[in-house]
Amino acid sequence: MAENRESFENLNQKLLAFVDNSPTSFHAVEQMKIMLEQAGCMRLREGESWKLKEGAGYYVTRNDSSLIAFRIPKRDFIGFQIMASHSDSPALKIKANAEIQIEKKYVKLNVEKYGGMLCSPWLDRPLSVAGRIVVRTSEGVATKLVNVDRDLLIIPSLAIHLNRKVNEGYEYNAQRDLLPLLGGPEAKDGFLKQIAREAQVEEEDILDTDLFLYNRMKGTVLGLNGEFIAAPRMDDLQCVFGSLMGFLKAGPKDSVAVHCVLDNEEVGSSTKQGADSTFLRDVLRRIHFAMGRSEEAYLMALASSFMVSADNAHSIHPNQPDKADPTNRPFMNEGIVIKYSANQKYTTDAVSGALFKAICDKAEVPYQVFFNRSDMLGGSTLGNISNSQVALNTVDIGLPQLAMHSCYETAGSRDTAYLVRAAQVMYSSSVQGAGDGMYRLNW
Ligand code: ZN
Questions:
Q1: Domain 5-89+232-442 CATH assignment equals 3.40.630.10
Q2: Which segments within 115-163 are labelled E, that is strand?
Q3: What's the CA-to-centroid distance between 6 and ligand 1, angstroms?
Q4: Which of 63, 368, 428, 435 is the most exposed place for a label (fewest CB within 10 A)?
């Protein structure tokens, strides 16, 4: 037991470091590249021809914010075992010409919302800026990652004395209430200069930016017995990390293991690097053709493939337990959540749900079930969007958490390890379906 606890703690510290080093989707992809290369995976580029070998691992990125890694088994493969998660989280994005002066005494920044965020947690806490800039070079333009690694900005609340009714409910106006304070009068014209200094480029060479505010508060393990782990961007970096760790531990035997992390889930996935793009389909096809296989063999492989769409789920809330379904009650630390929706907002059906349960049993990992209350609409996720590009037997799952889309979210300190184990088994296995109602699981 003590040893078990040790391994949970170890994994949680690695997760917190991963989250801390991933203030934006660009940084999350950069972290994954480092970890994949340390594990011997080779980089491929979409603009080059691919030569692939049996038994080897590879990865490819799109827009530097989505990444697909895969490992080919040592013998001819049956299909693909895919886990998909998302790299982005709701945040405030900095607009161009961002500086706004207030009575020549303050400089604040103009921002807009990215994704469906809870607004109030962003107020009254140290924030900073990270993302990418694009600079002019002698040959064209080049992207550069930036992270201003210090407390830089704050969005101050209005004092209660100036709005006595605020605790009766407040509607945040993004253009008025969410603009962060950068500095006093001397901060004027300083924002881009700071970014240029940080990126070690000339300010006039910065042609464009994708910069976001992020919460400076570090993640932590908390609770009387260390039950919980709280950090920014747990949705969905907890699943991204669990999927990657499972991928790195897996040994694919009959199917190609595919770790897929896509950007822009929080804004509808319909970008060139999102779940509604051709990225996953393009990569699967290219793996196929690089291994010298036919179009028909590709379609046969899809029929014997399995996809796990891994995006965090709602745990029962301690103060509002009635907000959840009466008979399906997911709690943190009680295992991976399988999500169902009759209207197929989640892709899970009886077959994909059963296959995933069998995988969890094999991994000796607990699982639980989520439905929305029948009188409430839930969120959606990447599974069904991705299915319109690559139609696969897919299950929607996630780890249970609280405060989804806050800039500081709480999850269970044991659940990441459960996902790693289930992912490892899933990536190492294969699901053979001949279309006769029988699905063979080979471990
Ligand atoms: Zn999510």
A1: yes
A2: 127-136, 141-147
A3: 28
A4: 435
